[in-house]
Structure formats: C-alpha cells, structure tokens
Amino acid sequence: MKASVIVPAYNSKERLYNSLLSLNEQECTEPFEVIVADNGSEDGTLSMLESFSANFPLIFVRIKENRGIAYGRNQAVRNARGDILIFHDSDMLAEKDLVAKHIKAHENRDDLVVCGMFWKRLYSFYYDRFEKEHKEKLAELYEDLPGDKEPLLDESAIRDGSFLDQCFDLDTDFIRALKSILGKYGDDLKGYRLPWRFFITNNSSVKRQHVEDLGLFDEGIVRYGFEDYDLGIRLHQSGLAFQLRRDIMSVHQEHPSNCASVDDIRTNIAYMCDKYNDIHSLDVHLAFNGPFDAELTNSIMADIEKLLDYEKYESLLHIFLELLHVVKDRNLDPDWKTKSPRITANSFHLPEVQKLLSKAEKKLGVTHFARAFKALIADLLHVDLK
C-alpha cells in the first residue's frame, strides 16, 4: 500500500460523507486506503460508513467515547499500511489529484513534510449553530437559507470537482501572517525557522516511519487544537524539511467551531510551553507567546541558532526562556500579578548579563536577539540594559 489517508471524525456524518465522495473521485494510479477513526460519534456516522460504497479500501475504527483527536488519529495510524500518511480531516473536500500529488511529492525524498493548501473554504451545509460572522456571509451569498444541516452544495459538484468554483480564502490574522511568510521565504520555506507552523493536519503528508519513530501524536493534548503543531514541532526538530504545496488543494466545509472556549487554547498553549521547556525549543515559546511579529521572530530565531553553538551563552538563553514564560503568564492568567514572579531583576547578576549580551552581540552579530532581550527585560522587569 502506497498511502494511507488518515481521517478523524466526530459527529460530522454529513461532511464526512462529502469528504469520502471527493476521495472516491481521486485520479490516482497508486494504491491507497482511507482510515476513518470515529471518535464516539452519536449522529449515525458508523452506519453511514458501513453503507458507503468506496472505490478504495475503507477501514474504520470505532472508538466508544471521544478521547480527543490525537487519540483518534493514532488509532487510525496504528491501522495504516501505507508508506505515506496523508492527513485529511472529515470536513475536507479533496481535489481530484490530491492523493496522487502527495504521493509524488515524496518520490526520492525521505526527509520531507508536505503541507498542502489549507486556507480554502466553502459552505456545504447550513447550521443553526453557525457563528454570527458565518450567518452574515451566508446572507450575502443566498437569498433563502435552508434548515439545520440542509445542503448548500450538490453532490454532483463534488463528483465533477466544480466545488472549487465556490470556495474562498479564509481571511484571518493567522492566515494573513502565514501568507506574508510565504511571500518572503517562498513555498520551500528556505530560511524560515518555524516551518512547523504550516503543518496543518487537514491537508499534509509525511512518511509513516517518521511519525512512528516520534511516537505518533501526543494523546496528552485532549482539548481542541495544537496536536498537529506538536507533531510538526517534533518533525522539525528531527531534521525534516517542510514544503508548502499550493497545487495540492483541499477545501474546508465550514461548520460551527469545535473549540469549546478560549480556555481550550489557553490550556493547550500552557501545555506546549511546559512540554517544550528548554532553550532548544524557544521557537515554540516565541510563536505562541512572543510579542514580536513573524519576520522579527524569525530573525530572533536565526540569532538564537548562533548562540546555541556556544555554551557560554546558554545563561542568556535560559533567562530569555524565563522571560517568555512571564509573557505567557501575563497573556493567559488574569491573576498573574498576584502570584510570585518566575523571574525578577534579582534572579541574575545584572552587570554580568549586560556584559555577556554585549559580547554576544559584538562577536556574533545577534542584534535582533539582543534587542528582543532588552525589550523584554525593560517591559517585564523594568530594567534598562545599555
């Protein structure tokens, strides 16, 4: 088996059906399978899977209760036979050549993580639970809206691929930031130090052996999101290359958010910062908590890579890590001011730190790191370093 398409699902029967229809239309000469991990759905997903007429080996794993998307994906991966894992969520519609292009991208490349186009969106069903912004956009597109879970997309559009004519770009600060990064560093992400930010598991692929070597997805991440970033970070740290492929197209069927509350995001950010609590993972802390824009963050990481080559500068990096933890606490914990600070101006010998930072800047040219270090010290500890 050349590839295994990994699809986690939870109470998304109607969107999953459409997703499987799009996979039925794949123009791929290589053998592939689709593995659906049903995370305790209660909407008839299992009966739909049992009756679905697939043009490929369709395997589904029934999980009695929802134990998180990481657990679901792992159950699917453990049943996979393909050399390549293609991650494709239950709400995604695949262009006809998605599987073939993912497979081809890995030819003669054992070190590659492929990130397909992930910011295209369309409306396939109407939901009464849609957030306000969705209802406003739908009101602009349609004169009359159907009832809850009634279709807005014909099956024929999925079969012939014309659903692509109805899609639009997701327009958020996050997507605009990623597009800006691509504009500067290109789709090969050459020179970009945080490529894992493009590893979104609704349209990405990697050799199965790499995922197995890293211990699969982290099942400790139970709340919504971040399990893909976590695996992407570990793939990056293992030395793999990342590539954005705009021509590998998949479109997200819009639906009410799976994120229960902002507490999900806060909890997962705190979890990630505790998990990657070392100076070799400062990119994680800068991405999630750093008060710097994407371009400056990348420049800071380039400087940090230089500093990591010298043991004598590790103390600076440890202080920088603690400062970023303080930023995290300020961002996530409303009571952070009432708690004992992680670091104060008395936590280190100020003249020694100032001398070491000056030496590093002069010898290695780490100007961006030095400025960021001084800015955090001034903002959080109210100390001006010359």
TrEMBL record:
Recorded hits in InterPro entries, A to Z, give: Glyco_trans_2-like (IPR001173), Glycosyltransf_2 (IPR050834), Nucleotide-diphossugar_trans (IPR029044)
Q: Which residues form the Glycosyltransferase 2-like domain?
A: 4-131
This entry's Gene Ontology molecular function terms read: N-acetylgalactosaminyl-proteoglycan 3-beta-glucuronosyltransferase activity
Enzyme Commission numbers on file: 2.4.1.226
Keywords from the named record: Glycosyltransferase, Transferase
Q: Which SUPFAM superfamilies match?
A: Nucleotide-diphospho-sugar transferases
Pfam families linked to this entry: Glycos_transf_2
Which PANTHER family did the record assign?
GLYCOSYLTRANSFERASE (PTHR43685), SLR2126 PROTEIN (PTHR43685:SF3)
User: Per its record, how is this protein called by name?
Assistant: Glycosyl transferase, family 2
